[in-house]
Amino acid sequence: KHLKEIEEQKAKEVEIQIERNKIQNDYMKLQSEYERTQSQLFDDNTSYDNAISGKQREIEMLSEELSRLKESNQILQSEKQNLTKKFENFKNEMEENDSATQLQLELTLSEEKILSLQDQIFDVENKLAE
After folding, report:
1. CB 91: neighbour CB atoms within 10 A?
2. What whole-number distance in Å separates Cα of residue 36 and Cα of residue 15?
3. 3-class DSSP state for residue 96?
4. How many whole angstroms from its chain centre is CA 88?
5. pTM
6. What is the Cα–Cα distance from 110 to 11, expressed in whole angstroms?
């Protein structure tokens, strides 16, 4: 009887040891998965931070470009108004003079520059909206 109890006790100890080994194995797997997940999370956060930083620099550059283009547009609008006034005054004075043609050409060139700048402003504003 005593021998049977010892055998049962040893069998229980073996079962407990097997169960303990399984639990340790599961724990090690979970620990490994946890570390891998932490590493992946860190990598993802770093990638996200880099992407945000890049987008912020891009927005800053586009904003600066937009500001510069708007300033150039204002200058050209003012030049256009001045040239238009000069042209109208000159046209009234000398209908067929070559200078009037030159002013008209300058006015046309200014208008083309303005249209080009307005297109650029539109493009930059669209990029900023993205």
Report:
1. 15
2. 31
3. coil
4. 47
5. 0.52
6. 99
